[in-house]
Amino acid sequence: MTLSHAEFQAIANKLKPRGQAYINGKFCDAVDGEKFETVNPATGQVLTSVAYCKSADVDKAVAAARRVFNAGTWSRAEPEHRKDVLLKIAALVREHSNELAVLESLDTGKSITDCLHEVGTEVPNFFQWYAELADKTFGKIAPTGPDALALITKEPAGIAGAVLPWNFPLVMAAWKIAPALAVGCSAVIKPAEQTPLTTIRLAELMQEAGVPEGVINIVPGFGETAGKAIGMHNDIDTVSFTGSTEVGRMFMRYSGDSNLKGVGLEMGGKSPFIVLEDAAINDDLIEHAAMSAFWNGGQNCSANMRQLIAAPLVEEFTGRIIDRVKAFQLGDPLDPATDIGSMITKDHKTMVMDYIQAGMDEGAEKLTGGGSDLPGYFIEPTVFQNVTPDMKIAREEIFGPVLGIMPVKTTEEALAVASDTDYGLHATVFTKDIDRAIHMARSLPCGTVSVNGFSEGDIKTPFGGYKQSGSLARDNGTEALEQYLQTKTIWIQTSAA
Ligand code: NAD
Q: What string of H, E and C letters represents the secondary structure of the chain?
């Protein structure tokens, strides 16, 4: 049963978040002792100070990860052992879900309801799902003549680096850590500088679950120092990055300028929500439209912020979405009645407000939303109409609660406008016509197409982007394992007995 606002507040009052790095099985300060502060964006209050890791700390973490990888304690352990430990992590996360959700809410400013779902349900499910794959991932045997046996085997890639964003801190950590550890890699993880606390707490739970020292290392810090040090490290074999397209590009360069490590990229988006003329504008569609845009305050890579609506339906759609959007409750993130919390930082709020101003300057009509008077960095869900495809708010990822409604006359126009972007992460299509649904799903150049409902899929389905939203790598599903594996051919010459 969900706790009350007062009960969540009581948990928050008791929390003493740890801000240390976790390297070689020990919690420690940064090598140079420097720290930075992490702040609750809903109140501006400092939560704690955190180890400011830089390249010396990353070197230390990679050395520990390499030592244990070469020793084989984890990398060559029985898969059943890795499975057991990952299942224990899942159980511990479930056991501590209220506390982890409160910590996540304090560090991100997002609603406790969302945090409970992410941390209490999704994160343990990720660990459980990859735990169960650990002893069910097989190699192949190639067809050969009678004088050879050709085995196609999978081996852990070695040391996996991961550099994470702030919008779903613990979910993103689990997306990378669970598959990497399931296949036997050791990992060096850098949480976003805005939101390091739940990943550090996860390290405590992983230690308790029996992950051997050196297998998981957490190096909190900033992008230009710890993030770059991971990207450029000559002894990291593969790096998985989630964040902006701008920084994703850097990881490709880091790889080229260092040891040509594997690079998996999950990046930004400007995803369309398409309503074709045969769709019914009902409560279900409106709920999906509203949540696709404003879930997590729009700070979501797959947020459907361009809503392309068949011209005859625009008036009805607009009226109903405005009513729904006005019902969203902004407020104290620890209150279970709150739907939308704070933006992540003051700077981020300023950037989003600049986009709202740009929309008005370019002639789009703001129907609702804008800044909020609440303390902290809140923004009211904002809806524009008369948005045209050339406008800044239609082209750039805002990563805040700013939705643009764009009328379209035909299915082909919807397809053309939806595809006219450098991004390709996600799209939603509403239509009753199965042929149109399949045509749109096949034609839209993006990693996930969701039909008659907004969804990113789940743990079983791969998630990632086409075009500048991603590399060919995918998170989630069995596909995620590929980011952390190498393929080896073993060709055995045989002779008749
Ligand atoms: P960001 O790119 O600014 O930061 C992401 C991470 O990269 C952080 O840990 C940061 O410290 C690090 N970083 C920053 N500069 C770096 C540098 N020069 N070298 C190395 N590392 C560096 O992104 P953000 O603002 O944290 O997150 C928002 C972005 O993440 C949005 O673009 C969003 O669409 C994207 N995102 C994508 C997915 C997905 O699965 N596709 C999921 C969540 C978020």
A: CCCCHHHHHHHHHHCCCCCCEEECCEEECCCCCCEEEEECCCCCCEEEEEECECHHHHHHHHHHHHHHHHHCCCCCCCHHHHHHHHHHHHHHHHHCHHHHHHHHHHHHCCCHHHHHHHHHHHHHHHHHHHHHHCCCCCCEEECCCCCEEEEEEEEECCEEEEECCCCCHHHHHHHHHHHHHHHCCEEEEECCCCCCHHHHHHHHHHHHHCCCCCCEEECCECHHHHHHHHHHCCCCCEEEEECCHHHHHHHHHHHHHCCCCEEEEECCCCCEEEECCCCCCCHHHHHHHHHHHHHHHHCCCCCCCEEEEEHHHHHHHHHHHHHHHHCCCECCCCCCCCCECCCCCHHHHHHHHHHHHHHHHCCCEEEEEEECCCCCCCEEEEEEECCCCCCHHHHCCCCCCEEEEEEECCHHHHHHHHHCCCEECEEEEECCCHHHHHHHHHHCCCCEEEECCCCCCCCCCCECCEECCECCCCECCHHHHHHHEEEEEEEEECCCC
